[in-house]
Amino acid sequence: MPTLFTKIINREIPADIVYEDEHVLAFRDIDPKAPVHVLIIPRQEIPGLASLPDEGDHLHILNAAKKIAEQEGLTSGYRLVINQGEDAGQSVPHLHAHLLGGRKLSWPPG
Looking at 1-110, which runs of residues are DSSP E strands? Predict the structure, then answer.
């Protein structure tokens, strides 16, 4: 059964898409934790970081994050977060990164 994010990729569920290429799709989070909160997802349905294949070029999410941060004007900084598993807060079993910015972010995050 396709994940919620796969349904967004397939345009079965609407989303505020801010970036896409042949490898990833990025859209604004519906429950933002910062003025800029974008989810970046691979088009390939991978359950999480722990399931990422050992072989292949996996820089697509990072490259997209850099482009989106520039596009969003996040010149003073931003954070990129990948949660792995329920205990870390991963609520959708599809690898994704949260790009957060637009305000000063505190540490530790959780």
Answer: 17-20, 24-28, 36-42, 78-81, 97-101
